[in-house]
TrEMBL record:
PANTHER family: POLYMERASE-RELATED, RNA-BINDING PROTEIN KHPB N-TERMINAL DOMAIN-CONTAINING PROTEIN. This is RNA-binding protein KhpB N-terminal domain-containing protein. InterPro entries: FapA (IPR005646), FapA_b_solenoid (IPR046865), FapA_N (IPR046866), Jag_N_dom_sf (IPR038247), KhpB_N (IPR032782). Gene3D superfamilies: probable RNA-binding protein from clostridium symbiosum atcc 14940.
Amino acid sequence: MQSIISKGKNIKEAIDVGLLLLEAKKSEVNIEILQQETKSFFKLKSKEAIVKITKLEQNPNQEQPYKEEKDPIKLMDEFLHHIPDPGSESLVDLKPKPRPAPKSNELAGKVWVKNGELFCQSSPTHYPLVTIPDGVKVYRNEQLITEKSFVMTDIDFYEVQLETEEKETVWKVVMDPHKLRVELHIEPGYKITRSLLDTEPAQHIELMIDEKKETYNTLSYQEVMDKLEELRVKHGFHQNEIVKAMDAAEPGVFTIASGIEPIPGTDGWIEFQINTETQIGPRETENGRVDYREMKTIPNVESGTVIAIVHPPIPGQPGRTVTNEPLPAPQTIPISVQSGRGIAIIDNKIIAIESGRPHVEKRRSIAKVSIMQKLTHPGNVDLSSGNIHFAGDVEVLGEVSERMVIDAEGNIIVHQSVNMATLTASGAVLTHGSIIGSDVSAGKNNMIVTELGHLLGPINQDLAKIIQLIKQLMLSPGFKASDFSRGGLQPLMNILLEKRFKPFPALVKEYVETVKRNENYLSDKVWAETAKSLSQLFLSLSSEAISIGWMTELSEKLKELHELSQMPVEPNSYITVPNVLSSRLYCSGNVTILGQGSVNTKIYAGGKLTINGALRGGEVFGRFGAEINEAGAESRTPTIIAVPGDQKIYINKAMDGTSIKIGNVQYKFSETRSRVIAYLNKHGRISFE
């Protein structure tokens, strides 16, 4: 018996489809319902109706169609007529015969593609299946088939529709803000044509698609020139780049016009006529030992010597934009030279009027040159000699004893040890012996300027707000009719400080006291002058009338000093010692420990920190990185090495318990590790090379 399974939206449709496929009537089949149709809300998870239809066998008693019987003798004659003659060539023709075309029963139940058309041949027992790939639409009797795979019959009409993708050429012309470069961005257009590939007959096939992409660039030379004219480009055309853009088959960027960039000039500078290189410290001999007696020193100068020549800035050369407009070169800045002790400036020449060591302090475009005198102390610094305060270099041939103090505006050199003492220098500090339980500072003036700069920031911000409020009050009619316009601004100032700016006087007082306490290290008198003005305005009951002009002038001066304090100072200060124990070292430049190392010491280096020996305990910081031979101790004494987030830490041997800190991220070694190079990665985490 012949049977099929049929589907439909409902039972009736499933039965009708089945009867049509079996070419039978309802009375000639047996119908079995396998699944009722179901529907859900919004047509989600709906099911089709499924039925099994079996064609009934005919009754043997049913009359069969009459077939005419042929005469047996007549059939024998027809058979003999088709037998070839024994003498004919066909009996000996051994040539291969062409393969016969497939019979219709070989294609039954199969589907195939030929010349871009879809064919099939159904069979009573099997129907072919077709899978539709992405980008292809198949219609059955002008109805879109939404299933991924479908059963194909030879009684329906099928149409395959292939999507053709097409994109126009996209381009734009971009000019940079400085009008120095014009770029042409282009994406050529394309057309994708799809066709059905031939497929051999099979019971189940997936339609195969062939894609052909044709690129075309519709950009014309006239379109580009019209756009350049719209942008008023008149200079620096690159015709060859325009042609390349017109012929481009891939997206690209082409520079089709360029201006002439200005050539920067040279800022003013100082040309030194003598050697002023900063001391590095003791020399290392050929056998690897450190010879502390060999010190590289800056040569002294005699009075009348020309130390340096001040050169004015050299202006740059202007450029030209693509719109043919002049482009000025960056402004050059002259160098401002301040003459310190023992220095005179005549006709752009810096001349020594005293004998001594030249000392240069530079912050960007500001330089101060002075002559440092030298004090040599032949023995120890102890109670018999007293403390030493000197406006120049100090050299001690002996040691520095307990509780003694050495203050120097230049360098400090100690040939023996420093025990529980205090050394403060504006320049460098060098010792031939160990530093034990002491406080050592190098670059004291730089430290003070930085500290004052931190105070000036909020002071000037509040002062600017006070000036703005006063100006607003002065514009009101009530102010003009009051006594404030005649008696000065002091009463109004007191009201504002009491009501709106209570913390302000305390900040001013801290600044004034810091200036007074460190006046010897502030060579520029402007710090003391601003402290005096702030004190008169906000701390004293002065009878002098206060004007808005005076306050504005003071605010401008505070702003300049704050900007000066933020400028990086050239590192002419450093500390170089053999060993250090239980001490505190602070330096605005490099700190170098050449001998056995550092034990339980706190070190701050505004430059680079280098420890050739071991670091046992304590906390150290290197603004421009840290390089340490060995860090940590077997006793796990807390040892912390810190650098900013943009620097690296180098440790030849980091012992268990050692901590490193880069920026705000900290890491503690849980085991001993060698050849450590630590840094912050792009995700803000500590990584190792």
